[in-house]
Specification:
Layout (H helix, E strand, L loop, with lengths): L7 H11 L2 H5 L10 H19 L3 H7 L2 E3 L4 E3 L4 H10 L18 H35 L2 H13 L3 E5 L15 E4 L5 E11 L9 E7 L12 E6 L1 E3 L5 E4 L2 E6 L10 E14 L5 H37 L23 H33 L3 H36 L11 H10 L7 H14 L4 H17 L6 H27 L2 H37 L5 H17 L2 H10 L3 H4 L7
Parallel strand pairs: 3-6
Antiparallel strand pairs: 1-2, 4-5, 5-11, 6-7, 7-11, 8-9, 10-11
Helix pairs in contact: 1-3, 1-9, 3-6, 6-7, 6-8, 6-9, 8-9, 8-10, 8-11, 9-10, 9-15, 9-16, 10-11, 10-12, 10-13, 10-15, 12-15, 13-14, 14-15, 14-17, 15-16, 15-17
The structure holds flavin-adenine dinucleotide (FAD).
The site of flavin-adenine dinucleotide (FAD) has 20 residues, from strand 3, strand 5 and helix 12.
């Protein structure tokens, strides 16, 4: 059976030594009182909840899956899910970073994100029930009317009700401009909505009394394409003026998708038959309102793969220390045993270290970005809010795509460490691979994230956001470059920074000639920039480790020794893939488009 230990030590390292959250909180009046002890106590309790309540349901939930009663359209979640969710609500976890005006605890997002990492390690499919709600909460908080906010936010914030995002239809996922669901005004400020949605995560379940669907639909006079989409709030049960539940609304689960992974999250086909909803935000501006939710969800998806990378790594390490096979090529390392544990073999270590390096840098990136998000929302200085918002916008597609691609590589490596046993269900490793795969697809496929990064976030604003991030890297390189012990990290980082600048300019020029050049290079480009961000974070983490080890002298803390080894592994074995990625990004459009469609 798999195991999970919340990585509290590394979370604390990232929070308190790398980004020094509480120093940053001091500049934000709403968070100024949040101190190190408070943060650590929340993480410890959150870790216990994840490991002791949610994790034990991961395997059984995967085996059991969800069941739809076609007569009632109700979905039953696996045994224990409802009770665990009730504990989650009772513990106040849903409200952690919600607005106190709506019953929230008002804690920083960065703390909430750390809890989500642990919940995702424990059970990604279960975590999607509260996870989706959080996106709905954010979207309503930003765009809801005062009435909508007063009615729905306290319930979403407490977790008593959950939320969904209903974008996808059978004929459209990426291209939402094609969507057909219709909303007609009823003349009393409400709308009658008809249509069909598919693939709706947590779209129907038995864990709460009401589900708040945020649905994209078209008004009768709406312009065609993505400029004619509006957002509507459609509750499963109507809500009376006094807040009590009214009758059943016309939104029903017609089927559940049979999936490769996250089997215990109900992925619903929803039919809207004269469902009654209210408009969220402005008519025809639904995508903008939904983007609040989608951005929150994109960070959330990166956290899902981070969580899976961590838990897969922990289990692969335990197995590699235990499993005896063959002798080390250089001679026995455990002569008293029948064979050496497989952790002596270089390639097994490479697989483990790959997962570890991706988990630790991924954690640093998520925490760094979540702290920027707190600054974007809560910093008193407008200039800081804007620069933080720019950095969050730049890093969001990287978190979504780079972390989920890495999560796929890492979980697959960790399964490989188990040999044939990794492929057998009871070990739990193949579930991590299956669960990780969807993260590259939903919330906009990773290709779409790459187009967003190169096309919108970099080229469309003349590289402004990337240059701002580049300045941070350059400042660090200038400072750390003065130290002999940092050369091994700073030199490759500076070199990659230069190469990214040149590559961006070159791709920008090519895109002028033919916009399809962006599509030909974007996926490779995102991975290169992802590595630039990781190299920056790894170099900073290595510098802290070097400093601590110097202070500790003859009795070094193994945590920092391991951090330094992992940083060296990253620079030696993972970062160099940027050389081939830059080459393939530069190879351009011709090799992809030369062949006529008829020849495929
Ligand atoms: C388990 C699961 C849960 C989901 N949860 C939700 C949910 O809660 N709410 C919701 O609304 N949706 C949800 N989705 C839908 C998901 O977001 C979409 O499946 C995804 O965005 C892709 O859309 P699509 O499946 O229609 O693929 P398509 O849009 O048809 O894309 C097919 C392929 O073409 C590529 N492609 C498309 N356009 C371009 C382009 N311009 N350039 C390059 N390549 C392109 C895509 O990258 C992809 O590889 C879920 C899906 C699944 C499987």
């Amino acid at each position: 059976m798999p195991q999970y230990n919340p990585p509290l030590r590394d979370l604390q390292f990232v929070l308190h030594e790398l980004v020094q959250v509480t120093e940053t909180f001091k500049d934000m009046p709403v968070h100024a009182e949040v101190d190190v002890d408070t943060v650590n106590a929340i993480l410890e309790e959150g870790g216990k909840f994840a490991a002791q309540v949610v994790f034990p349901l991961n395997r059984s939930g995967d085996e059991e899956g969800c069941t739809l009663d076609k007569a009632t359209h109700e979905v039953r979640t696996p045994k224990g899910y409802k009770e665990a969710y009730a504990q989650y609500v009772a513990g106040g976890w849903a409200a952690l970073s919600c607005d106190p005006a709506y019953g929230g605890q008002g804690l920083p997002h960065v703390v909430n994100q750390c809890i989500y990492e642990m919940l995702n390690s424990a059970n990604q499919a279960w975590t999607m029930y509260p996870g989706l709600s959080h996106g709905a909460y954010e979207s309503l908080h930003a765009h809801g009317t005062p009435e909508q906010k007063a009615t729905y936010l306290p319930k979403l914030s407490s977790g008593e009700w959950t939320g969904t995002m209903c974008l996808t239809e059978p004929h459209c996922g990426t291209d939402l401009g094609l969507l057909r669901t219709k909303a007609e005004p009823l003349g009393d400020g409400t709308y009658k909505i008809n249509g069909a949605k598919i693939f709706i995560s947590a779209g129907e379940h038995d864990m709460v009394d009401n589900i708040i669907h945020l649905v994209l639909a078209r008004l009768p006079d709406a312009p065609s394409g993505s400029k004619g989409i509006s957002l509507f709030l459609v509750p499963k049960f109507h809500v009376n003026a006094d807040g009590s539940l009214g009758g059943r609304n016309g939104i029903f689960c017609a089927g559940l998708e049979h999936k490769m992974g996250i089997t215990s999250n109900a992925t619903a086909q929803l039919v809207l038959e004269d469902a009654v909803g209210t408009l969220v935000g402005q008519p025809n501006k639904g995508l903008a309102a939904m983007f609040v939710m989608m951005n929150a969800a994109r960070l959330g998806v990166g956290m899902q793969s981070l969580g899976l990378t961590e838990v897969a790594y922990q289990n692969a390490v335990a197995y590699a220390k235990d499993r005896l096979q063959m002798r080390a090529l250089s001679g026995p390392k455990a002569p008293e045993k029948a064979a050496d544990p497989i952790i002596v073999h270089p390639d097994v270590r490479k697989m483990l270290l790959t997962a570890r390096a991706y988990a630790e840098a991924g954690r640093a990136l998520c925490v760094h970005t979540a702290l920027m998000l707190d600054q974007e929302i809560s910093h008193p200085d407008e200039a800081v809010r804007q620069s933080s918002a720019d950095e969050v916008a730049l890093l969001t597609p990287i978190i979504k795509a780079f972390l989920t691609d890495n999560g796929w590589i890492a979980t697959s490596h960790c399964m490989q460490v188990f040999g044939g046993h990794g492929y057998i269900r009871e070990w739990g490793m193949e579930q991590y691979v299956r669960d990780a795969r969807i993260n590259m697809i939903y919330e906009g496929t990773n290709t779409i994230q790459s187009l967003d990064l190169l096309g919108r976030k970099v080229l469309a604003d003349n590289g402004k956001k990337l240059k701002a991030f580049g300045r941070k890297v350059a400042e660090f390189v200038e400072d750390a470059g003065l130290r002999d012990d940092m050369q091994e990290f700073v030199n490759p980082l500076a070199d990659l920074g230069d190469k990214v600048t040149k590559l961006t300019t070159e791709l920008g020029m090519k895109a002028f000639g033919n916009p399809d050049e962006v599509g030909a290079a974007a996926v490779d480009y995102l991975r290169v920039v992802g590595h630039l961000v990781f190299a920056y974070l790894w170099a900073r983490m290595a510098m802290i480790a070097l400093d601590r080890l110097k202070e500790q002298g003859a009795s070094p803390d193994p945590f920092y020794v391991a951090k330094l080894h992992t940083a060296r592994f990253y620079f030696a074995k993972l970062l160099p893939e940027t050389a081939s990625l830059i080459r393939t990004a530069r190879a351009g459009l011709a090799p992809l488009m030369a062949m006529d469609e008829s020849m495929f």
